[in-house]
């Protein structure tokens, strides 16, 4: 299935959970947060949340700032 | 010792992590500063961009400092609340520097949106430290809705102009029942000392340290200035006078009698 992640579309197996996105992007999920279809998803729910085709994920990263 | 919300701090110098040349330089400077609370920002991940951000989180976790994510980039209360919820998940902290500045030229904080967001975020369990103008009325309103501290500006972010708002900061400090952290515009250690002498509970410094020719040495200078300013405040500063007040007894010995040759 195709999932929109920020400015890219990625292909994931049907039934994948949110952690699969980080595996696909080769990212360690330390310092990241995400929203699915505009709703912030608590990190504790990532392994239990199955993605659906066409889901729109917004992934955010901690960066330096004042 | 300074207490804000559920945490106590030995250091009254809070620091930002922006504008450093790299994460190693940042880590060295923050260590020299003695800071126990450091700010960070959040950005939408650019998967197609070649501009990868340094891993700044690992050295901060190693240093075991407290993290204070900000909502920089938010232009409204709604966006700030969204950013706050993301930050809580990204860093596992309910502490938040609330900042809403829609105007890119002066980065003036929007008081109406800030108050609105602060009220909601406090209700959601965040420890809210709002960046705001040096407006005594607004600071009282932010305190009343449950903010853990207020962070009025000295002058515009990154301007290094010091305490342009000095008279209003004094009123805020006199009235506040929550800690006052002077944020933004502190460009030199003397500015930090001045804020502490006024009775500020802490200062937040980023640009002046990060853009110094030697950030680590400058961080040390700020550490000393904040400590000096705090000790001066606690020691009771001498009062100002319009006229001279002699420090030595005026004996008038030059006008009495003739000099002995």
TrEMBL record, chain A:
InterPro entries: Beta-grasp_dom_sf (IPR012675), Mopterin_synth/thiamin_S_b (IPR016155), Thi_S (IPR010035), ThiS/MoaD-like (IPR003749). SUPFAM superfamilies: MoaD/ThiS (SSF54285). Signal peptide: none annotated. It comes from the Bacteria. Gene3D superfamilies: 3.10.20.30. This is Sulfur carrier protein ThiS. It comes from Shewanella corallii.
Automatic annotation (TrEMBL), chain B:
The active site is at residue 97. Pfam families: ThiG (PF05690). The gene is thiG. It catalyses: [ThiS sulfur-carrier protein]-C-terminal-Gly-aminoethanethioate + 2-iminoacetate + 1-deoxy-D-xylulose 5-phosphate = [ThiS sulfur-carrier protein]-C-terminal Gly-Gly + 2-[(2R,5Z)-2-carboxy-4-methylthiazol-5(2H)-ylidene]ethyl phosphate + 2 H2O + H(+). It comes from the Bacteria. It is found in: Cytoplasm. Keywords: Cytoplasm, Schiff base, Thiamine biosynthesis, Transferase. This is Thiazole synthase. Its main location: cytoplasm. Pathway: Cofactor biosynthesis; thiamine diphosphate biosynthesis. It comes from Shewanella corallii. 1-deoxy-D-xylulose 5-phosphate binds at residues 158, 184-185, 206-207. Belongs to the ThiG family. Residues 3-249 form the Thiazole synthase ThiG domain.
